[in-house]
Amino acid sequence: MRMAGKASAQVIAMRGAGYYSSNTVGAKAVIDKAGDLVVEALGSMALEAAETTFSVCDYGAADGGTSLDMMRRLVDTVRQRAPGRAIQITYTDLPHNDFSALFRLTQGLLGDQAKPPIADTPNLYILGSGTSFYRQIVPDGTLNLGFSATAMHWLSKRPGLIADHVQAVGATPEEQALFRRQAMADWDTILLARARELAPGGKLVLANFCADEQGRYLGHTGGVNMFDEFARHWRDLWKAGRITEAEYRGATFQQFYKTPDEFAAPFRDPASAVAKAGLVLDHISTTVTACPYAADFARHGDAAAFARAYVPTLRSWSETVFAGALDAHRTAHERAAIVDAFYGAYEAEVAANPAGHAMDYVHCVTVISKKAGT
Amino acid sequence: MRMAGKASAQVIAMRGAGYYSSNTVGAKAVIDKAGDLVVEALGSMALEAAETTFSVCDYGAADGGTSLDMMRRLVDTVRQRAPGRAIQITYTDLPHNDFSALFRLTQGLLGDQAKPPIADTPNLYILGSGTSFYRQIVPDGTLNLGFSATAMHWLSKRPGLIADHVQAVGATPEEQALFRRQAMADWDTILLARARELAPGGKLVLANFCADEQGRYLGHTGGVNMFDEFARHWRDLWKAGRITEAEYRGATFQQFYKTPDEFAAPFRDPASAVAKAGLVLDHISTTVTACPYAADFARHGDAAAFARAYVPTLRSWSETVFAGALDAHRTAHERAAIVDAFYGAYEAEVAANPAGHAMDYVHCVTVISKKAGT
What we know:
Chains A, B: InterPro entries: MeTrfase_7, MeTrfase_capping, SAM-dependent_MTases_sf. Chains A, B: One of its GO terms (biological process) is methylation. The structure is a homodimer. Chain A is an alpha/beta fold. Chain A has twelve helices and seven strands. Chain A has helices at residues 9-13, 19-43, 68-81, 99-106, 173-197, 226-239, 245-250, 260-268, 273-276, 292-300, 303-325, 332-352, and strands at residues 54-59, 87-92, 124-129, 143-149, 198-209, 279-289, 361-370. In chain A, strands 3-2-1-4-5-7-6 form a seven-stranded mixed sheet, with helices on both faces. In chain A, α3 links the parallel β1 (54-59) and β2 (87-92). In chain A, α10 (292-300) packs antiparallel against α11. Chain A is globular and about 65 Å long. The first copy, chain A, starts with 8 loop residues before the first helix and ends with a strand.
């Protein structure tokens, strides 16, 4: 669910030099930061005592590329304290994910060949699961460390359409309330599935997109608001008669960015199902990770080059929403022309007026533990 | 590694009606027969007693389609006796396998929609592993039932070339000895990896291609010898000057069909590493499964239709061997033309003279258990 890293390098590289490295550097930076909390979380576990397999899950892992260095740290940390203990890493994502890329990457058949493949670590077992994190993925009480980055903002279903915007951040209060309700129910579902999976004393380290204490969120950190740009360019197509009103209204991201208070809510209510399931919030913080494309632009100053690198990245994860909003009766050629016009207008705007465009990441990082004896 | 089943139906169906169903019916029939031994093997296990997850592996599972009905029987049998016990099925294959098809198939997103998806079974967890069965795939002592069908005839490496044939069945005694030695070492490697994985009392049910007590093997059960046909048509291309001598010699299947005695050998020697690892041979038998294409032909009598259905099936699993033997300097167009000519000649021969052509399966079925206390 998060951006695929090294495994897709060949395909992605075709879109232009630099795309690959910039595309993954931000996602990897977030995970590397969260890695400190993973190591800290391991510090409080009785790794040496148990004879069971030390079981790790990476939820929404894509090809596993961006979390690979963090996983190496995790494995090294466990191994130093419990040299004889088997370790299992279960990488999860939706069934259509490229699990072959994941297996090849972890076996050193793709990507960085300089380091020994993580799959060659003795007594380490790498598995994949094509099961959504809205369901239980491993058996009761077997999970020791659950990890997820930049995946759980995707809702289990779209609770409605956002008529005059594309994301809940720009929705009317009524629309936003629907999305918030779905997001809070989904958060419960995610946490209760993890509560069943976790062994007593097991922990989750989750880095999720959020709306932070200052109201910042992905692509909205002081400069131009990325989602407002999406909405404006989509609206322009409607005004120009290129798309219908239904198509205009239909473009709605199935996402919600919770605030830190919303992430914390189920833990603060002792009567909540999550609290009763034994989950405790050990840590919560927010972090902003600078857009690598804007950083590149600050170095090279070439607005057209920035626009050519930046907008196709936005397109890579947003295109299905806009293409999917178009009427099913349109020909493939029409659909492609409309979507090209949409991103073309965005790119032209960035090239003409690059200042303030940036897709900074804004994450809420939580560490959650399951109480022993629950 | 075995033929993909339902998940590939859409792609395969494009090659001609009937291809899909005939292609999988034989593979599935073998597995359904082995399913009786799986249920019998479960009968001797103390399923009720344990609190651990009941762990199943399907080694070389491809998309899981051909073993799906057998897995349903297995799950039902375990559940009847141990309703509360978690079950984990780990489907394994090489990393390039289409694991997305496997996950979609088991979740009911592909293939037969009439039965509830196996992944919807409560307290059942489906995982994938892109790790070769020449390596350990799950942690020590955690496997309860290992299954494999039509996969372990693939050697871990090719010990040499077969100069005047394409498969070890037609090799010189010296060449054959090299392949046999590799196959026996590989069998040890496979069994020792499984011995580590198996819990005490756990069992393996394996249905492998073999050369049976009467000397029969895949495509050699009394009529035309399929591998001799491959060799002859490949030799014809050399004689006609279409391929070089090096290309002629280079076409060699990385396979070996062991005899029942060879399958049994490590168990009969109490000093073998396999015996010392606690593995015991509970059952060994051979079985022939009739070629569905030849059966179709016996019904419809249309030789050209038989040839059009039969030879592309052979091509689907053999083409890489012949294409791979061609000189790297040849153009893609040249390579395609040679391979087309090769299968075209085979197809023309079957159409002209269909009697005796059949790819009957010949399997050796073994049930192996790990002694308690080892």
